[in-house]
Amino acid sequence: MGHSCCRKQKVRRGLWSPEEDEKLINYITTYGHGSWSSVPKLAGLQRCGKSCRLRWINYLRPDLKKGSFSAQEEQIIIDVHRILGNRWAQIAKHLPGRTDNEVKNFWNSCIKKKLISQGLDPKTHNLIPSHQRASNKVAAGNMLQSQQQPFSIITVNLQMTDPSMEMNPPIITLPAAFSPNAIIQRPSSIQTSSVPILTSVDNQNPNILWTVNGRENSLDSSIFPCVSSIQNTPISPSVTPSWFGILDENCFWGHNTIAENFRAPRMDVLQAQGEENNQANEKVDVAEGVQDMDASFDSSSFGLEFVESTFLSSSTCGDLGSMDDLAWNF
DNA sequence: AAATACCCCAACCGCATGTGA
DNA sequence: TTCACATGCGGTTGGGGTATT
């Protein structure tokens, strides 16, 4: 089969020779790549444009970082992958000099195994239950620990204090005691895109605005002029979320202090479901929502900009000099 | 020393999306 | 609006190197 660009002429395949590399480097450094499809002809290469592009991006580019990944880079990959899943190109953007292919290979050859050896599911980053680790089987119908906990109802109450709300997203503060299985209600008047960040709760240190992966971000609340609040009815006050955000139009998601992801559907969604089911079934729906978290994580369509902003804020903690990294591009 | 298994990673493949005629 | 082509992305493959038997 081959690429459409390869059918027109005979093309070489396989590993690149030093001579081919030299030709490509000479051409691109002199003329730039312009249209990749015309590069091989102009550079005197019997390769397809796609192959040239890949070779340049993954290997020949002068700004590439050579050598093995540092521990810090590895941690960044793990952190971003936890949020974005297998979006290698997005992950690589957080690692200057690294390519998506390189990150992907490193993940598949090293990190994946490391996580598994630590008892973590490399897809979800959740702890693999011991019985699954032993048998590598998922018992149908089994519920995670977090799913078995009771849930409470939380109402997000945003107070718009700034007319430039859309440009300055609000902080949402959480009550000290907050159940990770809470149902969170967002006022329908608030668009998802305008609520990009939610703050965390730390019972021990109320001054911390939010934390990710146990790291603290001492962000100045003045950055986010809009103030809001959440009221809830805690049932499981011993567990507080370390962070959470918006998954999509229908639900929130987050991560709690017992290292379990949770997902909370919107109240109005639940109510719609409740018209068909009785109250008992509604609780099951919530549990299933949490269970679906793992499956939906990779393919979810929540705002990447938000996620990246959140990640950058966390990964650069202690290095928060550049607040540009925290820009909200909504 | 030879055969085999395993691992890493460069490169390829197919699909999705973007762009311009 | 449609079509063709270019580009970008993630999954997969296969060759070469290394470890093990």
From TrEMBL:
Its main location: nucleus. The keyword Transcription applies. One of its GO terms (biological process) is regulation of DNA-templated transcription. GO terms for molecular function: transcription cis-regulatory region binding. This is MYB family protein. GO terms for cellular component: nucleus. It comes from the Eukaryota. PROSITE patterns: HTH_MYB (PS51294), MYB_LIKE (PS50090). It comes from Manihot esculenta. Coiled coil: none annotated.
